[in-house]
Amino acid sequence: MSYCSKAYNEPSKPTVVTSSIPGPESKKQIDQLNENFDARPVYFICDYEKSQGNYLADVDGNVLLDVYAQIASIALGYNNPDLIKAAQSPEMIRSLIERPALGNFPGKDFNAILKKILNIAPKGQSKVWSALSGADANEQAFKAAFVYYRAKERGGFDVKHSDEELTSVMANQAPGAPNLAVLSFKKAFHGRLFASGSVTRSKPVHKLDFPAFEWPQAEYPYYKYPLAENEEYNKKEDERCLAIVEQLIKEWPSTKGAKVAALIIEPVQSEGGDNHASAYFLQALRDLTLKHNVVYIVDEVQTGLGATGTLWCHEQANITPPPDLVTFSKKCQSAGYFFHDEKFIPALPYSIFNTWCGNPSSMIIAGAIGEVIQRENLLEQVNRVGDYLMSKLQKVAEKYPQHLGRLRGKATFIAFDLENAENRNKLLALMKQNGCNVGGCADASVRLRPTLTFEEKHADLFIEALEKSLASL
């Protein structure tokens, strides 16, 4: 018996009882919520007590197969018994009630909690710094990269800051506040704070009206599919984008007055349209960052913890040497960055610091998720089910070539494109009405983000709903 069948009392199929979603009760509660909270983006009001495994219930009695999983952030499913057990542990009670300021007053159990996080660390990474969210993880990683970069410029990690640095930084001036930049890629999404917003390039709404750093953006490869039939074209696309990256690193200091201290990339640009980077591209970036003394940051916030078939997507590229920093959140339920070089620990102990320095409650859940993934061999299942789902989707694409294009993915981390945004949005609404909660990205893409416990029977139900929805377009 599979883990999903053992862990959950799932229904055999979705149930839709309202003529539209959101239904009348959801609409009523959305209006009430809107009096106290900006509820305009809300799709429907969920009933989490009645949600089970891969099925998400709403307050109208609809029960949808969830192939979006809280924007890719639910690893195992709803009401997971292993996570409920972890949530009821004495460690969890202490972390919730005491809410320790970890940088100053960690509990006696904190190191054991951290070690469980490190059990799921990417290959080559041995240390972790915790954060509060994916955006915060990236902001903290930028700080670590800048401190590291400046220490190298200063001539050593034990060299003290000058009086000029200490004085000028209080006026937001160089050299204490150096003019450094992070290079990112067009269509990237790295968060909605200020530095993370400056490297986000996916949609105007993510950063409109906010001040931003003038930082460079390179081209992210846009491949033709199927990959096996377009190797020559895609290799040229990699080379084109790599040339742009190197040119920006070389020219940004002279044109904009800022040295490129770090480069950040998603192995798959999720919010930006599920654009994939090849293993060659990711390794070539590593070579360039070493050549030009640039810190290499891999953003695994959405791709991390198993959905692409390995715990961390970039591991499939076997990047050598490993990236300097790897950021995480979403499916981990916790957040932060992994690293391996002790020199990324700032010389001054309060350089990267805040009151809570992350959240031990979330870390406890992350550790429990990792234990389930390893105990139940869920990576094998994700790869098996991903192959099964992809073979089914290929047949659907052949049947509806006018609607479904650029089918791509790794394991169950899958996407395809509709011919335009209007039909994509219609399809997402039809899928809900046919019992499946699915998400979009970019202008006309649909992204599948099921849990790691998603099985062949769930894939069959998804395909059934997809064909029915495509036939209605």
TrEMBL record:
Pfam families: Aminotran_3 (PF00202). Keywords: Aminotransferase, Pyridoxal phosphate, Transferase. NCBIfam families: GABAtrns_euk. One of its GO terms (molecular function) is 4-aminobutyrate:2-oxoglutarate transaminase activity. Its cofactor is pyridoxal 5'-phosphate. SUPFAM superfamilies: PLP-dependent transferases. PANTHER family: 4-AMINOBUTYRATE AMINOTRANSFERASE, MITOCHONDRIAL, AMINOTRANSFERASE. This is 4-aminobutyrate aminotransferase. GO terms for cellular component: cytosol; mitochondrion. Its EC number is 2.6.1.19. The keyword Aminoacyl-tRNA synthetase does not apply. It catalyses: 4-aminobutanoate + 2-oxoglutarate = succinate semialdehyde + L-glutamate. Belongs to the class-III pyridoxal-phosphate-dependent aminotransferase family. It is an enzyme of class 2 (transferase).
